[in-house]
Amino acid sequence: MPVGVLFALGSYALYSCSDAIVKSFSGHLTVFEIGFFSALFSLIPAMLSKPKGERWRDTYKLNHPWLLHVRAVTGVLSATMVVFAFTTIPLAEVYSIAFLAPVFVTIISVLVLKEHVPTQRWVLLMISFVGVLIVVRPGFRELHWGHLAAVGSAFFGSMTTTILRTVAPREKRVSVFGVPTSYLIIFNGLMMIPTFVMPTPQQLAFFVAMGILGGVGHLCFITSTRLSPASMVAPTQYSQILWAIVFGATFYHEFPDTIAYVGLAVVVVAGVLNVVPAEIRRRAVARFAILRGPAAAKAPAAANDQKPADTKKKAA
Known about the structure:
The chain is mostly helical and 316 residues long. It contains 15 helices and no strands.
């Protein structure tokens, strides 16, 4: 397995550990207090990973101030909603709904950025959406505000991602990280004042662990993108489904039923196929045809043999 893929798997494992810790605060601290301390302690690894040549005091020297401030607002909304979701509904359900983000990103890319999206990709995105419906099953069981919050988090997260794609090449990394983090700290700090409860030493230790886990996970992910192409790194995100099932069962006694497992499988398979390049998918189909037997293997070969013949006819 490529080293870059291993780093990516490690990064999402660390992210999942951090998310599982968030759930442990359910019923003890408010969403805003969790968000405040999470953002505050995320500064620890950020201080160690600042690029050379950049200065923290230049954080607000921006090339695209409006876009970065809008991204900060959408980031605050997404982060607040996902914390609420983690503390109210099962981990696996939060992740399955969170994987709607690619659907929203695609829609925004078409409507705002005027990008062309192939029909095959639309089909895979719709299949992912169907998988989420199988997991959540609206109309067949009671839904909670946490489900709506997870959808909102996916939507605002997709806006954050789309804006980041636009501004990242032309902004300093300290700005890309510092602006939304300062928004998170200020917003959650103000909102938590009326209901503030002093965290216990154990809770503070958990917050420090969350900051370190998230920071190291981010560094691992950056390393993975440098060592392996995006087409190999992107599918590793769906490993979070496995961690959600493991952590949910081990620490919170959350056990998805059979139908939920089917829906999760649909989400993962459609999601992986969606991020894998078309050329790799064609190779996989060809190999599968070979494994099925000589008759199936001859079909792709016959199609390939037909192309030169057609070309000769056109030349004649």
